[in-house]
Amino acid sequence: MAPVDLSDITGKTPVTRLRVDSDMTTKEMARTISRLLNNTVLGLDGILNKALKTCGLLIAPWLADVARVYFAIGYYL
């Protein structure tokens, strides 16, 4: 597991370190995508969750690869 550094968060939010499983599988990514709420947008890209869910099985392997790399280098949004 890779630690998440939230030390750059300021204000009333307490600083916390999270532990995440850096070995994200395609199956886990597909399950995560399938659990997204429809008609909402998760990020700044404006892509509707419904669109992600529609192509979830197709994009899950690539998103799992990206997540593993991000976790390995310690890049968390």
Which features characterize this protein?
77 residues, mainly alpha, 3 helices, 43% helix
Describe the structure.
This protein has one domain (2-73). With 77 residues, the protein is mainly alpha-helical. Helices cover 43% and strands 10% of the residues. The chain contains 3 helices and 2 strands, in the order E-E-H-H-H. The chain has helices at residues 26-34, 49-54, 56-73; strands at 2-5, 17-20. It is globular, with a radius of gyration of 14 Å. Strands 1-2 form a two-stranded antiparallel sheet.
Quick take:
The chain contains three helices and two strands, in the order E-E-H-H-H. It is mainly alpha-helical.
- Order of H and E elements: EEHHH
Number of helices: 3
- Category by helix and strand content: mainly alpha
What average pLDDT do the residues reach?
A: 79
Give, in spatial order, the strands making up the sheet with the most strands. Answer: 1-2
Kindly provide the radius of gyration, computed on alpha-carbon positions and rounded to a whole number of angstroms.
14 Å
Helix content: 40-55%
| Percent range for β-strand residues | 5-15%
Low-pLDDT sequence parts? none
Molecular shape: globular
Provide the number of structural domains. Answer: 1
Largest sheet: 2 strands, antiparallel
- The CA-CA distance between the termini, in Å, is 17 Å
Number of strands: 2
